[in-house]
Design a protein that fits this description.
Number of strands: 7
Shape: globular
CATH class: Alpha Beta
CATH topology: Spore Coat Polysaccharide Biosynthesis Protein SpsA, Chain A
CATH superfamily: Spore Coat Polysaccharide Biosynthesis Protein SpsA, Chain A
Number of helices: 9
Distance between the termini: 39 Å
Structural class: alpha/beta
Radius of gyration: 16 Å
Helix content: 25-40%
Length: about 230
């Protein structure tokens, strides 16, 4: 395992307040002691604040995806990255980067894909609204039934992949239906999926996600990908 590479991908849009804290929290020392070589890649959605400058100053590699949408950002990142393991997490400091070694451990155990599950773990008060929890549980149940693949948190933004899985993901999502698109591709390709319970923090900056519209787009993605 000595010398395996890990790329931590952070899709970001106007996250100057949090991007530095996320990069700083990546447990480089722990991972390097385990023999990993670590790279942090920030995919910036053409931010109008200092997100890119902060990320660069913190030692991250920065690329720009000027087209809007988290899905487009991750497609660009997947085309760019070459690593033995890839971790995707949001840049808003809600997902603790300290769980990265746990995700990698499960990938090393044989899983192709591992998620950080907020619904299996604990959540800070006010981090997710009751409406969003209910909607996520319904969408998660829908996904598990449609694809006969168990998942506990469909909408999580915390994913780990073996590097060879990335090239097999033919994503079509442009925006916040990205996670549903990832899940459908993983399930249809027969990749094994593990889950790590995580603690989810409350976001300190305004959310960019519209609950009802996003939920409908996620449901549409699940159904259309299942029967296409």
């Amino acid at each position: 395992m000595k010398g395996k590479t890990v790329c931590v991908i952070l899709p970001a849009l106007n996250e100057e307040e949090t991007i530095g804290k996320v990069i700083e929290e990546v447990p480089r020392g722990v991972l390097e002691q385990k023999g990993y070589r670590v790279n942090v890649l920030v995919v910036d959605g053409n931010s109008t604040d200092l997100t890119r400058e902060v990320a660069h100053d913190m030692g991250a590699e920065v690329i720009i995806e000027a087209r809007p949408g988290k899905g487009r950002a991750m497609k660009t990142a997947f085309q760019h990255v070459q690593a033995d393991f890839v971790v995707m997490m949001d840049a808003d400091y809600t997902y603790p980067a300290t769980y990265i070694p746990d995700l990698l451990s499960m990938l090393q155990q044989g899983y192709d894909v591992v998620i950080g599950s907020r619904l299996m773990g604990k959540r800070a008060k006010g981090s997710i609204s009751h409406l969003n929890i209910i909607g996520n549980r319904l969408l998660t149940m829908m996904a598990s039934i449609l694809y006969l693949t168990r998942i506990s948190d469909l909408c999580t933004g915390y994913w780990g992949f073996k590097g060879e899985v990335i090239s097999k993901l033919h994503l079509s999502a442009e925006g916040f239906n990205l996670e549903a698109d990832l899940f459908t591709q993983v399930a249809k390709n027969g990749h094994s999926m593990g889950q790590v319970p995580i603690y989810y923090r409350r976001r300190s900056t305004p959310s960019k996600l519209g609950s009802i519209k996003a939920g409908l787009n996620i449901a549409k993605t699940l159904i259309s990908e299942r029967f296409c």
